[in-house]
Design a protein that fits this description.
Length: 581
């Protein structure tokens, strides 16, 4: 059941809009502050703080864990730690401490935005040959299953960083709900039971995965209480020792022993050397809204900014649906072409971000769009010869003070690598597939990649994760979605719907479409287009392809004029919970 409570507006203090517009600096520990242009000014008075909080996540236990730490005096960032850790226990098919996350945080004090990069890294012994069969074809099993598919996890370090730099509570307090649920047990939701059933052949390859996910040889039965004592212990070590509880000592030794025994190549030095990073977010202005989103090593924010910059030359609000969809798809096509060609880990590759984010560049791309015809992707030149680039979760939080957290977290594909490291309860990710492992061969999401995203020791693989905060003169949204390569387009559409005035509930329920340059088709959710629109798009040259699987968006919004918070969890995921309290 979806809960979406509409809170009664509380008395809020007001400030002049000018105060909002004067802020907007993006900051990073490793980069200079980047000034964000201010949103459009009007003279309305707005609320300074909501006075109450909103959380939307893919699982009601995780949403409630967030509220539990808020009730203990925590802020949105403590709640983010609690929600992420709880999802590691109750939604392991999508994210967890064996994976990584990306987050956009907004600190109300000083109106500051920061991006937290807790993306996985390649181990030092990474070798592309491990992912290629003798005949030169991609070895999909090595890329997607077992320890070779797993990057060095980033989530534990990211949670420790958020708690230490931005939280008010201790890690023990923020991790307490997840530890309790893992120890005492919970009833797995239908999606977790289905994911285990779907992946059972691969889970059976690893004894610790069988012990954890297939007790008595079967997925947990409906209504069964399921406990995760090994993960509870690992979370306790993180709570007690921070990074050392995972990246050094007992847990690190168990992780490395399990990975190496199963043919993987992690070392203690790989774990010891992992660092979560703060980076300057991407900031783009569109129709008076400031969109704060993910920079590389996500391609999401660059693509969203590029698409919005192209679209800013059109008045979408005055167009019939086929024309509007045509321009959005053409903008998606051009942004994904650049995604494939240019983007990678900023610590390893130099990217032409100034160009990609420039309005002049967008002007040129806009000029190349014909008003009434699809551009075949094969007619759009690649920027360079490519040496040859679903399962993830997102949650959104606003606290009583107006702090915000947009967090997208992943183990990559359903149940990650399906490999549990014995004695840790940690299900490892299969994020290595997000590298361009084999030249000119797409990954599991059909994404191509270039040298910019080639694997290297210690390098972060490119991601599509696009946690975003959209700040307007009087309305704000915290938004994101899972969905592999479709994350970018789903978040983009959510942003457009929010700017069009839709509520959180409308945004998450909205039907969606997707284009990613190659394959040159428009994926369409059933019910997105009426027959006339489908016909018009087909006449323009588009190939429409039905797609059943769409991400589970979780959105919270704050209307600062009425001081109303809304929280909505995607109706495609019945276990989700958006709640205002
Ligand atoms: N593993 C999916 C992504 O990061 O894009």
């Amino acid at each position: 059941m979806i809960f979406s409570l509409r809170a009664v507006a509380l008395r809020g203090r007001v400030l002049l809009l000018a105060a909002l517009c004067s802020g907007g600096a993006a900051f990073a520990a490793d980069g200079a502050p980047r000034a964000a242009p201010a949103p459009a000014v009007n003279a309305a008075a707005i609320s300074q703080r909501p006075g109450h909080a909103a959380i939307a996540s893919a699982n009601f236990l995780a949403t409630n864990a967030g509220f539990e730490v808020l009730a203990k005096g925590g802020n949105a960032f403590d709640a983010a730690v609690a929600v992420a850790a709880t999802l590691s226990v109750v939604e392991p098919e999508s994210s967890g401490i064996g994976g990584g996350f990306m987050a956009v945080l907004h600190r109300a004090k000083g109106d500051r935005d920061v991006f937290i990069d807790a993306r996985e890294t390649a181990p030092a012994a990474v070798d592309r040959k491990d992912y290629v069969n003798a005949d030169g074809s991609p070895n999909r099993d090595a890329a997607l299953k077992g320890p070779l598919s797993a990057g060095i996890p980033g989530e534990p370090a990211g949670l420790v960083l958020i708690a230490k730099r931005y939280g008010r509570l201790s890690l023990q307090q923020s991790l307490a709900p997840a530890i309790r649920i893992a120890r005492d047990g919970f009833q797995p939701d239908p999606r977790l039971r289905d994911s285990i059933a779907e992946q059972k052949q691969d889970l059976r390859r690893w004894p610790a995965s069988v012990a954890k996910y297939l007790p008595n040889g079967k997925p947990p039965a409906e209504g069964a209480i399921w406990r995760d004592p090994d993960q509870a212990r690992t979370l306790e070590l993180i709570a007690a020792h921070g990074d050392d509880g995972f990246y050094r000592g007992e847990t690190a030794k168990k992780l490395v022993a399990a990975v190496q025994a199963a043919g993987g190549n992690w070392t203690l030095a790989d774990l010891d050397g992992y660092r979560a990073k703060e980076r300057a977010p991407i900031v783009v202005n569109y129709r008076g809204y400031r969109i704060v989103t993910a920079p590389p090593p996500s391609s999401g924010g660059v693509a969203i900014a590029e698409i919005l910059n192209i679209l800013s030359g059109f008045d979408l609000t005055r167009m019939a649906q086929p024309q509007r969809v045509h321009y959005i798809v053409e903008a998606m096509r051009r942004a994904f072409r650049d995604h494939n060609d240019y983007l990678g880990d900023p610590d390893f590759v130099t990217m032409p971000l100034d160009m990609l984010l420039s309005p002049f560049y967008a002007d040129g791309l806009r000029q190349s769009i014909l008003p009434d015809k699809a551009t075949p992707s094969s007619m759009l030149p690649r920027a360079e010869a490519s040496e040859p680039g679903m399962h993830t979760t997102h949650f959104s939080i606003i606290d009583a003070d107006g702090n915000m957290a947009a967090v997208t977290s992943t183990v990559n594909y359903v149940m990650g690598s399906t490999f549990v490291a014995a004695g840790t309860g940690v299900l490892l990710n299969d994020e290595m597939d997000d590298f361009a492992l084999v030249p000119n061969k797409p990954n599991v999401y059909g994404l191509l990649g270039s040298v910019a995203n080639a694997p290297k020791p210690g390098k972060r693989m490119l991601s599509s994760m696009s946690p975003s905060i959209v700040i307007g003169a009087d309305r704000t949204a915290v938004i994101g979605s899972p969905g592999g390569s479709t994350i970018i387009t789903q978040v983009l559409e959510g942003i457009l719907h929010f700017i069009d005035g839709e509520s959180a509930q409308q945004i998450v329920a909205h039907k969606r479409f997707h284009h990613q340059y190659m394959p040159d088709v428009v994926n369409v959710e059933q019910g997105t287009f009426d027959a006339a629109t489908s016909d018009a798009l087909t006449r323009m040259g588009y190939t429409l392809k039905p797609r059943a699987s769409w991400g589970f968006m979780n959105v919270v919004t704050w209307d600062r004029k009425t001081n109303q918070l809304d929280a909505a969890s995607d109706p495609r995921r019945p276990s989700g919970l958006g709640k205002v309290q």
